[in-house]
Design a protein that fits this description.
By secondary structure, this protein is of the alpha+beta class. It contains three helices and 13 strands; from the N terminus they run H-E-E-E-E-E-E-H-E-E-E-E-E-E-H-E. The mean pLDDT is 92.
Length: 178
């Protein structure tokens, strides 16, 4: 039984939600998000709350019930507060620079990596070894942060690479002399 799927989603002030069948459009102070959900679920608006209901107890429908409710909730949080992921660069000579909409990463490769910010995503570089990926779509923010991290993942011996700020790297001991 989905406890998350049964919880109604309260709509905060300043946010407008338009439900057209399976299409949900959320508009708030930070922007607008549109998503299409499974047509087997019933999405309704009642008393300034969004309620997701399922027609039967099939396993697939039960799995989609909580997921749909969480995705709609994430859309509402995104247009009101936004999402951000903080990345940290560890390593001698590793750094990030920002010029306009281009992010330039120097990660010990033969050339610097120049990345263009995707639509709806903004990257801030407050320090040469810190990056903040911001946006209103939680999935896009997470994907882009993981994409940046994928260029130089942290290694377990010295901890060099790009890591999330709250990530803990399990360290290994190196070789010992005879």
């Amino acid at each position: 039984m989905s406890r998350i799927g049964k919880k109604p989603i309260e709509i905060p002030a300043g946010v407008t939600v338009n439900i057209d069948g399976t299409n949900v459009k959320v508009k708030g102070p930070k922007g607008e998000l549109v998503n299409t959900f499974n047509n087997n679920l019933d999405i309704k608006m009642e008393n300034n709350e969004i309620v997701v209901q399922r027609p039967n107890e099939e396993k697939k429908i039960r799995a989609l019930h909580g997921l749909t409710r969480t995705l709609i909730y994430n859309m509402i949080i995104g247009v009101t507060e936004g999402y951000q992921k903080e990345l940290e660069i560890v390593g001698t000579g590793y750094r990030a620079q920002k010029a306009g909409k281009k992010l330039s990463l120097t990660l010990g490769l033969s050339h610097p990596l120049d990345l263009e910010d995707p639509e709806g995503i903004e990257v801030e570089v407050p320090a040469p070894n810190k990056m903040i990926v911001k946006g209103i779509d939680k999935q896009k923010v997470g994907e882009y942060a993981a994409y940046i991290r994928g260029f130089r993942q942290p290694e377990p011996y010295k901890g060099k690479g790009i890591k999330y700020v709250d990530e803990v790297i399990r360290r290994k001991v190196g070789k010992t002399g005879k």
